[in-house]
Amino acid sequence: MPLKKIYRSIRNELKKVEKLLGRILQNTSNKSILGINRYLLESPGKRLRPALVILSAKAAARRPLRPQRLINIAAAMELIHMASLIHDDVVDHCDIRHHKPTINYKWNRDLSIVFGDYLYSLAFKLISTCDNMDILNCISSATEELCEGELIQVAERDNLSLSKRRYIVIVKKKTASLFAASCRVGAMVSSSPRLVMEGLARYGLNFGIAFQIIDDYLDIMSSQDELGKPAGLDVRVGELTLPLLYLAGYNQDTFRKQFVKAQNNKDDLEHLKGILINSKAVKKTKKTISDYAARAKRGLEVCRDSEFKQSLIMLVDFIQQRAN
After folding, report:
1. pTM of the entire structure?
2. What are phi and psi of 101, to 5 degrees?
3. Is the Cβ–Cβ distance between 175 and 209 less than 8 Å?
4. With bands split at pLDDT 50, 70 and 90, how would you rate the model's confidence at 126?
């Protein structure tokens, strides 16, 4: 099912988010910054985080929402996500994203680092307009977790003894924390009861874990044409992801040798992919994805039935389809 259909119930709000992002990123007299900002806007991505803010707010709402506050927060979450991707591309030495050269490649590493910081500052300036310390604390904590997750992941590179538990900690912090915060602040904007707020946060957390495992699975199982960025990037930088951790569990010594060779040779990477395809690791990975997807849906049991709740359910199905 295409995202456009899932987003149908919040189409107008997402258009406002897009317009706000455009205004913010083009509100500079510096031609150099303006050029980078415009380039960034040319590749919008899926806009999952702003969609989750809006859908969660509407799924939880018991009374009319303050629309501008909702749009501001949704746009801020996307700016934080953009900043994290730019920094990711630097540490991962990634030259392509969304089928286009990354800012890191088109300009340079130094500029990319500072530009990511610049986007974080724009996000928190926007959040400050909401004049709500609970919302600020929620998003600040999620951003701290995101950065901590990235730090742990980089620190654990080439650790061939990485445990599944440690991997899930990284995923929760680096990816799922921002998804959980997107859903939680959506519920906060709607002044929903704590039970509903916690249920939506659980939805976002488990949605985020499933989303990242799928991304990690596709990184090795798909091509650059399918991904819009280089395939096998995790292996090349020495990061063990869940499919590879499951594969390592069957024959640790053979896996170690093949993983090290695959880091530096495309043919060996393809060989590793072939081993993975013919192992039980793929089935175990998909089972884990399904488990987290089911947990995400259970988090929505606290919400009344509505088209917005149904859209949140459909988003889970959408990301699961990517791994099939």
Report:
1. 0.96
2. -60, 140
3. yes
4. very high
Could you give the domains of the chain?
Answer: 3-321 (1.10.600.10)
Query: What amino acid occupies position 79?
Result: L
Among 49, 14, 19, 64, CA closest to 189: 64
Give the separation between CA 226 and CA 55, rounded to whole angstroms. Answer: 28
190 phi/psi in degrees, rounded to 5: -85, 0
Characterize the bridge pairing of strands 100-101 and 96-97: antiparallel
Q: How much helix, strand and coil, in percent to the nearest 5, is found in the chain?
A: 75, 0, 20
Q: For residue 49, what are its two tokens?
A: 């985080």
Per-residue DSSP letter, 305: P
As to burial, measured by CB atoms within 10 angstroms (0-12 exposed, 13-18 middle, 19+ buried), residue 3 is: middle
On the 0-12 / 13-18 / 19+ scale of CB atoms within 10 A, 166 is middle
Other Cβ atoms within 10 Å of 157 Cβ, number: 13
- Render the burial of 103-122: b for 16+ CB within 10 Å, e for the rest: bbbebeeebbeebbebbbeb
pLDDT digits (tens, 9 = 90+) for 236-284: 999 999 999 999 887 788 888 899 999 989 899 999 999 999 999 999 9
- The two three-digit tokens of residue 289, written as one number: 């994805």
CA separation for the pair 147, 120 (Å, rounded): 12
Residue 311, pLDDT score = 97
| Portion of the chain with pLDDT greater than 90, in percent | 85
Instruction: Phi first, then psi: give them for residue 97, nearest 5 degrees.
Output: -150, 140
